[in-house]
User: Which sequence fits this backbone?
């Protein structure tokens, strides 16, 4: 073992571990990285400033000068498509719970989430290998390896890097949180139907349809009912917003991960801890019915997933059953910051550090003591009331709070009941939270964006993109 006089060393003289031995890398989901071009920041998570600069986000191309600058610690909202929340909380828990040193054995990987995920995965390989090499030299721990914690689409980026691009040779573990390993029907709904009911629909829909990554989120399993037949999206022609060529290209990306993972599993030296945090108990689009007019009618299953990713899609594509998974009642947007999920990730990585191996590891609690269901829209316009519904299992009294992310305190609190109508919300972004009187049941939160009327874009509401 090397001996270097550095005050941050994590290996004691006799080899006793005083901090986490590996390099932990957090990979955010779609819209979770800030983007900047040569002149300004074009994406910070703020949906309102985005509305004034949509042309800069649309049609990503190599050499367009757009770079990812940082992981968004507060929230990021791509209206009508996806929201992310609480990355700052998860990062803080990882650093404190594992004794990680930012910039040394804890790194965050921002990337341009508009592009083909293969490009981001290649960048991740280059950076992660460099971080690991530096950490091994500085810590003296030549046995250190990489650990990836990834939310949503970030799990696909990490898995492609590890399985397809060969980073498994340097990786100890991959933990995905709400990752659509088999795709998410919600992505197909947005791409085919557009961002409905908004004056911004044309621009927003055009932006999403220009993103190669959006097609890599499409479901690859049979999810379209055409009479008695159950078809895959790639088997269908003539769907608005879902050209067959792009659908097949998106599916190929997910199948590449599956094929590489199955081939790697046959290798004698392949040893990787793979774990999935799966969100559940939330109404989620799980399938479609094909109408005679060649449109897709979504089928919402009440407790089928996290509101975005169906439960069967949230564990790795090569698994035939959930295997090493933790099930958490929570919405996709806030799943990475949900206490049970964050505590599970920290506990799993502590166990790996203690065992220094994978064979005897057993998951912490793999069930939910109590569960809340929260159903509310992702986005409305300012002249619409916000309708929120919730249920508790087991039954319990409920409490609702609606809190602006820029402002002083909740705009409303409601005690009792399971359905609420909140009128008169001003343009802005809000966190909707339902609490149960049962202390064993964790609260569930989601993000709702209230957009200004299309003609009032000059009034950009206050927004706290980096709230802790």
Assistant:
């Amino acid at each position: 073992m090397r001996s270097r006089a550095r005050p941050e060393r994590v290996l004691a003289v006799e080899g006793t571990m005083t901090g986490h031995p590996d390099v932990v890398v957090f990979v955010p989901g779609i819209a979770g990285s800030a983007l900047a071009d040569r002149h300004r920041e074009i994406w910070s998570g703020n949906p309102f400033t985005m509305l004034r600069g949509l042309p800069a986000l649309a049609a990503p191309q190599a050499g367009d000068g757009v770079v990812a600058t940082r992981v968004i610690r507060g929230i990021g909202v791509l209206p009508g498509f996806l929201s992310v929340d609480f990355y700052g909380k998860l990062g803080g828990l990882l650093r404190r719970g594992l004794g990680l040193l930012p910039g040394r054995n804890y790194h965050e990987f921002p990337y341009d989430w508009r592009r083909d995920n293969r490009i981001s995965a290649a960048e991740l390989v280059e950076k992660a290998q460099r971080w690991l090499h530096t950490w091994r030299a500085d810590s003296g721990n030549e046995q250190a390896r990489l650990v990836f914690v990834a939310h949503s689409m970030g799990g696909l980026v990490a898995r492609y890097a590890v399985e397809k691009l060969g980073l498994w040779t340097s990786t100890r573990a991959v933990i995905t949180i709400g990752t659509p390993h088999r795709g998410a029907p919600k992505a197909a709904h947005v791409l085919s139907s557009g961002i409905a009911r908004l004056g911004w629909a044309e621009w927003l829909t055009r932006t999403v349809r220009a993103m190669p990554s959006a097609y890599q989120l499409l479901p690859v399993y049979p999810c379209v009912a055409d009479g008695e037949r159950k078809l895959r999206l790639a088997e269908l022609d003539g769907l608005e917003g879902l050209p067959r060529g792009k659908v097949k290209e998106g599916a190929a990306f997910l199948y590449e991960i599956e094929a590489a993972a199955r081939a790697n599993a046959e290798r004698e030296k392949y040893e990787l801890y793979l774990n999935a945090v799966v969100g559940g108990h939330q109404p989620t689009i799980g399938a479609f019915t094909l109408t005679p007019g060649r449109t897709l009618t979504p089928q919402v299953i009440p407790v089928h997933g996290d509101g975005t990713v169906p439960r069967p899609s949230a564990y790795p594509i090569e698994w035939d059953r959930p295997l090493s998974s933790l099930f958490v009642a929570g919405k996709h947007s806030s799943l990475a910051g949900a206490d049970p999920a964050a505590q599970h990730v920290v506990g799993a990585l502590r166990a790996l550090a203690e065992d220094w191996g994978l064979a005897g590891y057993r998951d912490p609690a793999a069930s939910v003591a109590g569960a809340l269901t929260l159903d509310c829209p992702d986005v409305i316009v300012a002249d619409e009331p916000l309708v929120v519904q919730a249920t508790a299992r087991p039954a319990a009294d409920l409490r609702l709070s609606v809190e602006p992310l820029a402002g002083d305190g909740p705009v409303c609190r409601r005690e009792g009941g399971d359905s609420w109508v909140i009128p008169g919300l001003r343009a802005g972004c809000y966190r909707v939270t339902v609490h149960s009187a049962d202390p064993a049941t964790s609260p569930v939160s989601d993000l709702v964006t209230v957009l200004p009327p299309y003609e009032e874009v000059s009034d950009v509401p206050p927004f706290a993109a980096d709230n802790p």
About this structure: Residues 1-18, 356-368, 458-468 have pLDDT under 50 and may be disordered. DSSP finds ten helices and 23 strands in the chain.
